[in-house]
Amino acid sequence: MNGLDGVDAGPIPSDTGAAPEAGAPADPAGHPSVAALFDRFGDAVTHHEVSAGDEHVVHVDPSRNVEILGWLKDDPDQRYDLLRDVTCVDHGGGEPLRVVYQLWSIPHRRALRVRCLLELDALEIDSVVPLWATANWLEREVYDLFGVTFRGHPDLRRILMPHDYAEGHPLRKDFPLRGRFSRAEQTRRALNQDVDRFYIPAERAVGREPQEVTLAAESGDSETEG
Amino acid sequence: MAQKTVEFNVGRNPEMGVDGLPTPSPMAPFDVPEPDLGEEHMLVNIGPQHPATHGVLRLVCELDGETVVNVTPHIGFLHSSFEKLGEYRTWNQIVPLTDRMDYLAPLIYNCAYVMSVEKLMGLEVTPRCKVARVILMELDRIFGHLLWLGTTAIDVGAFTPFLYTFHERERIYTLHEKLTGARITTSATRVGGLMADFPEGWIAELEHFLDTFPRTLEEVHQLLTGNGILIGRTQGIGVIGAEEAVNYGFTGPNLRASGVDYDVRKDQPYYDYETYDFEVPIGEHGDCYDRYLVRMEEMEQSIGILRQAIERLPDGPMDVEDPRITLPTKTDAMSDMESMIHHFKLITEGIPVPSGDCYLPVEASKGELGMYLVSNGGGKPVRWRVRPPSFVNISVLPKLARGHLVSDLIMINASLDIVLGEIDR
Q1: pLDDT-derived band of residue A176, with 50, 70 and 90 as boundaries?
Q2: C-alpha angle A140/A125/A200, rounded to 5°?
Q3: CB B33 to CB A55 under 8 A?
Q4: Cβ of B76 and A84 within 8 Å?
Q5: Of A51, A106, A171, the CB nearest to B357
Q6: pLDDT at position A144, please?
Q7: Cα distances (angstroms) measured from residue B194 to each of B131, B180, B197, B318, B383
Q8: pLDDT of residue A210
Q9: pLDDT in tens, B397-419
Q10: Cα angle, residue B273 at apex, residues A84 and B142 outer, rounded to 5°
Q11: Which of A68, A205, B127, B311 is deepest in the core (most CB within 10 A)?
């Protein structure tokens, strides 16, 4: 597909995408954390590869992501204390979405990339906000742009797109560049905005009831009368 | 590792708590009784069009009197779907998108993007190109910090430093323009090199800038660093400890102000940064004042790195000669059939990048900038993800601002050094 065809159809239509080539399995001994992960979690670590020369990637079971990432964060030999990034990759063609965690250990100066593969009909994974507070906004962005639901996230709502955006999740491969609605429909929706949509429920609850305010200074004899 | 704790001859005001507790405003002008407002909280919008938000950022504050009970940043007003656009473009066509993210330090983003593509291709750039990119990145670190310095000074009511810093920025704009033809949207890099070598006299002009700029920096130091108003507005405001700062994903000067010694240039060096002699300033209190000091010192260090880089800038070609990425010469393309086909394929299909993924972090002026690329072997990326430092830094604002006054919220926001073009992407 070339040129402007993709503008209406999305970069890779969901029926023609190519499956990503799995990297060749690498030797776990090349990275101390990977060897330890295989020892400790066994079957839950499904794949290990080296990408771009020196970047170690492991695939883990999405249902145990918090357990494994928590161990990587807290174990004294691992100490991956900085969560650099949480993002997601869609390869198109009905392939599973890949949630990607970029970890960095400040004490040991080591990097590790952890991937979780989510099938398209089960886009749910446990949130890692209890481990790293920085995951809050990063997971919201993945939810917004890819439609992955993070179980246990404290505040899961759209972040870059408007709260009432109804056209779907823009970074999915079958999402057209111009959006799903016609330009006329998009304009109509923009013009019919309700002011309330600019506030989240917690904000709408603040100060809604009108209240009599009496200034303490006015109750006594005051210079305002003179 | 070389490290340095920022120290200046400035006493910390003992009345301004540095233990993380908000302190009452030091400048209550009149002794008037507090009005009884009951328990009701007020909802106040700051932005999206407000100069103190440093961009199109909207802060919805829940206020108890003048104290911030809660603040919710609403972002996305500048969302331009750069990452989505990147999936429709060939690898080299993405470069112009990168400088539109952090338009305050565009060259760092240009360089970081092509560095990640080159890493995925296993491509080593020429020695001259490496040093040239170090020059560009350090120049734009000063460029980005200068804007932060000027606008932060405005936020505390000091107008003169703003004029000084913007005058210096204008000189860097001129350097940008002479090198790339554009002042902000530089698009200076290409995969495998730069769009052009340094023009004649450019290095001499940069040296002149390096000779004269420290004097301006010194003047700003004298105006601000010991200034009672700045100290009162920043010391003990927006405090975050080392462990929490890491947990909240702080990087760059914000993290180092909390006392964590983490700088990508030292910890995961690229472009021979380990051979440059420079120090990483570390703060100790993690408040707005330390963030100010760390950035001021970083500018000094960048001047040193620039001087060393100019000294070691080797002669030789700027761009790599690799048939995968290098276009044939115009003469060849017009006279030789194979060269013309080669030219045609490179332009229409894009350069081939092997299958795989790659995360490359660099130390940008705002923090750790990561470029995550996923390729399936084609001429366009499957996914191009930018790990945005400002996006992560601004997400900490609610935690930092809670319990402070509204005026402190403005100061905390300024001290984080955000750029909305990159937050919203």
Answers
A1: confident
A2: 30
A3: no
A4: no
A5: A51
A6: 92
A7: 12, 10, 7, 7, 24
A8: 58
A9: 999 998 888 988 999 999 998 99
A10: 80
A11: A68
B75 interaction partners in chain A (CB closer than 8 Å): 159-160
Conformational region of residue A28, where left means phi above 0, alpha means psi within -120 to 50, and beta covers everything else: alpha
pLDDT tens string B34-53: 666 667 788 888 878 888 88
* Strands A124-126, A149-151: pairing kind: parallel
**B52 in reach of chain A (CB within 8 A):** no
Within 8 A by CB and 6+ apart from B305, the residues are B134, B138, B276, B278
Whether chain A has a CB inside 8 Å of the CB on B41: the answer is: yes
Distance CA A193, CA A188 (A): 9
Instruction: Tell me how far apart the alpha carbons of residues B365 and B262 are, in angstroms, rounded to a whole number.
Output: 14
| pTM, full prediction | 0.86
For residue A15, the model assigns a pLDDT of 40
Determine phi and psi for B335, rounding to 5 degrees.
-115, -20
Q: Do B247 and A160 lie within an 8 Å CB cutoff? A: no
CA–CA dist B97, B80 (Å, integer): 10
| ipTM of predicted assembly, 2 dp | 0.85
Nearest Cα residue in chain A from B247: A132
Cβ-based neighbour number of residue B419 at 10 Å: 26
- The encoded tokens of residue B65 equal 């009197």
Give the span between the Cα atoms of B335 and B322, in whole angstroms.
20
Cβ proximity of B210 and B307 under 8 Å: yes
Residues 6 or more apart in contact with residue B287 via CB below 8 angstroms: B18, B234, B235, B236, B237, B238, B239, B257
Residues in chain B: 425
- Any idea how long chain A is? 226
* Ramachandran class of A152: left when φ > 0, alpha when ψ lies in -120 to 50, beta otherwise: left
> Mapping DSSP to helix (H, G, I), strand (E, B) and coil, where does residue A69 land?
helix
Check if B89 contacts A (Cβ < 8 Å): no
Backbone angles phi, psi at A199, to 5 degrees: -125, 145
CB B409 within 8 A of CB B61: yes
State the residue for tokens 């620039």: B306
Tell me how far apart the alpha carbons of residues A118 and B91 are, in angstroms, rounded to a whole number.
28
Q: Are B13 and B232 in contact (CB under 8 A)?
A: yes
Q: Residue A133 — φ and ψ, nearest 5°?
A: -65, -25
B292-302 average pLDDT score: 92
- Residue of chain A whose alpha carbon sits nearest to that of B58: A198
The DSSP secondary structure of B101-119, one letter per residue, reads: TSTTSHHHHHHHHHHHHHH
